[in-house]
């Protein structure tokens, strides 16, 4: 196999999710590849006319022209563009999509969330055929610096600390400083080391190993570098040069353990960069553990959906006055063989940041449609509510719901969507337009977690929702005389004035239930009525309700 230098290869990344596009581009740039980026297929065609890439990495599903249509367009051109290797990125590893892609001429597939080691291996393997055109060898780490660092770890004294410093924004520094950014960072690190009495060893082009007398000494010296700004000599503006930092105290007994520690530090620094960088964390600290968990959640989500690890539960909502069941909220639960039970509060934010919430939302909507049909068939209350994340509360939401419910023959007028205040506040005019489009399809809208955000009469007037959900944090002490009781009375009064329904969530005590009923809250939801139930249990509960 011919040797090659990634610096001689141009990779075009096509992805409509900005965060995913950024992470993939930075990972490839980290390994030295030239990167072009396009946010959609149309932009990709323009980029290819400007500069022919050696490889295209492309999302399958994108607004406008899809990835498959882009590939078909390129293959039909019968010029140099038609011969460029083409790798698809897909969130679902389904057979139909793969067959369509292969027929269009795809060379390979990568499943999202992207395994970055597999990404690099895939890119390198597809670029081997072009390696003979390049004479330069692939850039290797600084073997001497690495060896010296490992040797120093062997001689480490008890209590000494070690860190890896890694540049997050290497491509940005290189472009802005015409290749001199790395030397500037080197100068700053050397200066920091002299002042703090630290030892610094260069591991490769943009990573350094640091050894100090204690963890506190290293953290105090490195923290200013995390928030570093470097002046761009051409534009004379300040550029943030973000550094991923990991630090750990260790007693190193032999070279093998030193090698293992270094690899763990480097891997932690890579993970920090993928999560946005610009942080100083301890390798065994709680923050790093949370970051690893978030990374694992992203990696496991698609498998979880495909293998049925995720399921939905149904928590009843009842009329406060009569106790009659009215509807249920559809709640996602995840039992992972690898990660154990995961709370929605843990995995939903991670899924949203990873740009994968749309897949989870569509899956929940499909589950709700199927459940609704079964409830109608059993002649049971069939109204269901589904939570919609802020990133999903977009103008295309009504049409998405319509397509999914039409596929199953379910009724949209039996659906309610719950959105948070932050979803509405971001753009009240657009939010009201979305709510009106949902109403036109018979879909009700509830404002969730009301009272915890920026609640105001102006926001409620600007966006015509149907229901206000009183946040559980106020319900917990609602039976006690105090500020929470006054807040809930104010919310109920405000809802009445605007002609809106109220739902109290998190009702766990009979005293809370009585107070809310006496003070004209319309609907109750919580453990005093029922915990969230699997579908069969929920149906049995509804069937047995008259006897209650």
How would you sum up this structure, described in words?
By secondary structure, the protein is an alpha/beta fold. Helices cover 45% and strands 21% of the residues. It contains 21 helices and 21 strands. The chain has an eight-stranded mixed beta barrel with strand order 13-14-16-17-18-19-20-21, surrounded by six helices. Strands 2-1-3-4-5 form a five-stranded parallel β-sheet, sandwiched between helices. Helix 20 (510-518) links the parallel strand 20 (501-505) and strand 21. Helix 2 (41-50) packs parallel to helix 3. The radius of gyration is 28 Å and the shape is globular. The chain starts with 9 loop residues before the first strand and ends with a helix.
Indicate the low-confidence ranges by residue numbers: 132-140
Shape estimate? globular
Percent helix, as a range, is 40-55%
Topology, number of strands: 21
Strands of the widest sheet, in order across it, are 13-14-16-17-18-19-20-21
The major β-sheet equals: 8 strands, mixed, barrel
What is the CA-atom radius of gyration, in angstroms? 28 Å
Task: Please state the average pLDDT score.
Answer: 81
Structural class: alpha/beta
Strand content: 15-25%
Distance between the termini: 75 Å
């Amino acid at each position: 196999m011919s040797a090659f230098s990634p610096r001689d290869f141009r990779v075009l990344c096509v992805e409509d999710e900005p965060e995913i596009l950024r992470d993939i581009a930075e990972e490839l740039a980290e390994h030295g590849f030239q990167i072009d980026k396009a946010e959609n297929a149309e932009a990709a065609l323009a980029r290819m006319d400007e500069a022919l890439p050696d490889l295209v990495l492309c999302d399958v599903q994108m607004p406008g022209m899809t990835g498959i249509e882009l590939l078909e367009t390129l293959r039909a051109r019968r010029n140099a563009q038609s011969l460029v290797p083409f790798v698809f990125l897909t969130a679902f590893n389904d057979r139909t999509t793969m067959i369509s892609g292969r027929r269009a001429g795809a060379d390979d597939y990568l499943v999202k969330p992207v395994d970055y080691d597999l990404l690099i291996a895939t890119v390198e393997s597809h670029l081997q055929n072009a390696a003979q055109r390049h004479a330069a060898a692939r850039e290797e780490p600084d073997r001497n610096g690495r060896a010296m660092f490992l040797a120093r770890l062997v001689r480490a004294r008890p209590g000494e600390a070690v860190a890896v410093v890694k540049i997050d924004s290497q491509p940005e520094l290189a472009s802005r400083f015409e290749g001199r950014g790395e030397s500037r960072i080197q100068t700053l690190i050397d200066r920091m080391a002299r002042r703090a009495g630290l030892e610094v060893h260069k591991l490769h082009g943009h990573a350094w190993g640091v050894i100090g007398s204690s963890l506190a000494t290293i953290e105090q010296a490195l923290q200013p570098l995390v928030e570093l700004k470097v002046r761009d000599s051409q534009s004379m503006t300040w550029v943030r040069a973000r550094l991923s930092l990991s630090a750990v105290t260790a007693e190193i007994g032999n070279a093998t353990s030193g090698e293992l520690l270094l690899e763990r530090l480097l891997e932690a620094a890579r993970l920090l960069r993928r999560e946005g960088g610009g942080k100083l964390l301890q390798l065994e600290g709680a923050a790093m553990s949370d970051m690893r968990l978030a990374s694992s959640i992203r990696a496991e989500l698609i498998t979880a959906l495909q293998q049925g690890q995720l399921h939905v539960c149904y928590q009843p909502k009842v009329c406060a006055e009569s106790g009659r069941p009215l509807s249920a909220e559809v709640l996602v639960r995840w039992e992972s063989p690898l990660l154990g039970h995961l709370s929605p509060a843990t995995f939903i934010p991670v899924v949203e940041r990873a740009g994968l919430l749309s897949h989870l939302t569509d899956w929940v909507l499909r589950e709700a449609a199927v459940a609704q049909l079964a409830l109608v068939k059993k002649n049971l209350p069939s109204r269901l509510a589904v939570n919609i994340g802020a990133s999903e509360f977009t103008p295309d939401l009504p049409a998405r719901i319509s397509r999914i419910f039409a596929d199953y023959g379910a009724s949209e007028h039996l659906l309610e969507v719950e959105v948070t205040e932050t979803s509405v506040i971001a753009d009240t005019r657009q939010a009201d337009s979305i709510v009106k489009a949902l109403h036109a399809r018979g879909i009700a809208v509830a404002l969730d977690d009301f009272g915890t955000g920026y609640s105001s009469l102006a926001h409620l007037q600007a966006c015509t929702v149907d229901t206000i959900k009183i946040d559980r944090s106020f319900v917990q002490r609602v039976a006690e005389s105090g500020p929470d009781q006054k807040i809930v009375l104010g919310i109920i009064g405000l809802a009445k004035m605007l002609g809106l329904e109220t739902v109290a969530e998190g009702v766990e005590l009979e005293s809370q239930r009585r107070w809310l009923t006496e003070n004209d809250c319309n609907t109750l939801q919580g453990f005093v009525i029922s915990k969230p139930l699997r579908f069969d249990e929920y149906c049995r509960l509804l069937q047995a309700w008259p006897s209650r």
